[in-house]
């Protein structure tokens, strides 16, 4: 079972205690009330990645030829200027092929997605980004091989200045170019598909 953490500027309130307890049990539901949290941290289970061989078969839990595609922890943040995601991995190797997926849903029902792709042998700070919106968006990112951390930041204007934003994220890893199917890890669940959204976050 995965756990959730949240920090708040309104410590000690009954509402915070109740929400914290629910989050610790992994009971965050789609459509939950907006959080007053500065950030929302989502822990992911160890070794819960899947080899997603669909449509040729069902996903299976096996180890890749090399590398460790396990996603350990994700932190979501909604500031005055941007929405930010920090993904901590077991091992972001320089070799192999990585794709980091982040989805955003605003209180107005706007859905946007980022795919951050990093190819085999690519220099540490070079990646390719695909944004689902029609407009141009000045997205910033960082791939830190030494700390095994990937961060993404999206200006709020690219989401039309929302009051709240809900998140979900996943990682995909191909050990070699011959590998047709990715090793996939969904943040906050031990399954191989998205099952919902994070608690919506208001701005700091």
Looking at this protein, list some descriptive labels.
204 residues; mainly beta; Immunoglobulin-like; 6-stranded antiparallel sheet; globular; disordered N terminus
Structural account:
With 204 residues, this protein is mostly beta strands. It has a single domain (4-202), classed as Immunoglobulin-like (Sandwich). Helix content is 5%, strand content 40%. Strands 3, 6, 7, 8, 11, 12 and 13 form a seven-stranded antiparallel beta sheet that branches. A six-stranded antiparallel beta sheet has the order 1-2-4-5-10-9, with helices on one face. A hairpin with a 4-residue loop joins strand 9 (140-144) and strand 10 (149-155). It starts with a strand and ends with a strand.
CATH-defined superfamily: Immunoglobulins
Cα-based radius of gyration, to the nearest Å: 17 Å
For the record, give the distance between the C-alpha atoms at the N and C termini, rounded to a whole number: 29 Å
Low confidence ranges: 1-37
In CATH, the topology is named Immunoglobulin-like
Strand content: 35-45%
Could you say what the CATH architecture is?
Sandwich
Tell me, rounded to a whole number, the average pLDDT.
Answer: 81
| Overall spatial form | globular
Q: Order of helices and strands, N to C? A: EHEEEEEEEEEEEE
Question: What profile does the largest beta sheet have?
Answer: 7 strands, antiparallel
**DSSP E strands, number:** 13
The percent range for helix content is under 10%
CATH class wording:
Mainly Beta
| Structural class estimated from helices and strands | mainly beta
